[in-house]
TrEMBL record:
Residues 6-161 form the Phosphoribosyltransferase domain. Belongs to the purine/pyrimidine phosphoribosyltransferase family. PyrR subfamily. Homodimer and homohexamer; in equilibrium. Its EC number is 2.4.2.9. It is an enzyme of class 2 (transferase). Keywords: Glycosyltransferase, RNA-binding, Transcription, Transcription regulation, Transcription termination, Transferase. It catalyses: UMP + diphosphate = 5-phospho-alpha-D-ribose 1-diphosphate + uracil. This is Bifunctional protein PyrR. The keyword Glycosyltransferase applies. Regulates transcriptional attenuation of the pyrimidine nucleotide (pyr) operon by binding in a uridine-dependent manner to specific sites on pyr mRNA. This disrupts an antiterminator hairpin in the RNA and favors formation of a downstream transcription terminator, leading to a reduced expression of downstream genes. Also displays a weak uracil phosphoribosyltransferase activity which is not physiologically significant. A motif (PRPP-binding) lies at residues 99-111. The gene is pyrR. It comes from Fusibacter ferrireducens. CDD domains: PRTases_typeI.
């Protein structure tokens, strides 16, 4: 895989998350009833960072849960990957809550669809919203994020990689050629 270009550096990621925190507060007219659920590896640290930024603005953090979803290749259709929900880790009620899903990248939308299924299986949220650091297009389902860090037009031969300090030892969003 060949490195093509950096899209966001550490400072840009931080500024973007600050903006998303403000957008979340603005859209919801405060933080009553809001909880965050980060999707697997990199959505979870991003959700924690958003919670900390919201605490700086509103005086208290949001509760953060996590959702573990992995993709497996469906043997019958070699082209497509199917998301598999491994586990939902929330130690708080979601009934009546506005659940904000947080992920690093949205592409086909299949991961988010699986995430919504898992949330709805678990409880009865008032609503579900979606925050992503990068929307790279190519949706295969009618899913659109409520909060987008950066829209990055891509070709299907490219891949967007988000690196976060908590997982990768550095912070970066970059495009690679497959
Ligand atoms: O919209 P989709 O087509 O479902 O793609 C988006 C998902 O793909 C990536 O996860 P990936 O499976 O690459 O795992 P990773 O986060 O562990 O790298 C990313 O973190 C999203 O969760
Ligand atoms: O480019 C992509 C596509 C799916 N998930 C990613 O993290 N990057």
């Amino acid at each position: 895989m060949e490195f093509k270009a950096q899209i966001l550096d550490e400072k840009a990621i931080d500024r973007t998350l600050t903006r998303l925190a403000h957008e979340i507060i603005e859209k919801n007219k405060g933080i009553d009833n809001l909880v965050l659920v980060g999707i697997k590896s990199r959505g979870v640290p991003l959700a924690n960072r958003l919670s900390n930024k919201i605490a700086t603005i509103e005086g208290r953090p949001l509760k953060v849960g996590s959702l573990d979803i992995t993709m497996y290749r469906d043997d019958l259709s070699l082209k497509s990957y199917q998301p598999d929900v491994k586990g939902l880790d929330v130690d708080f009620e979601i009934d009546g809550k506005v659940v904000i899903l947080v992920d690093d990248v949205i592409y086909t939308g299949r991961t988010v669809r699986a995430a919504m299924d898992a949330i709805i299986d678990y409880g009865r949220p008032a609503s579900i919203q979606l925050a992503v650091l990068v929307d790279r297009g190519h949706r295969e389902l009618p899913i659109r994020p409520d909060y987008v860090g950066k829209n990055v037009p891509t070709s299907s031969k490219e891949i967007v990689k988000v690196k976060v300090l908590e997982v990768d030892d550095f912070n970066e969003v970059a495009i690679y050629q497959k």
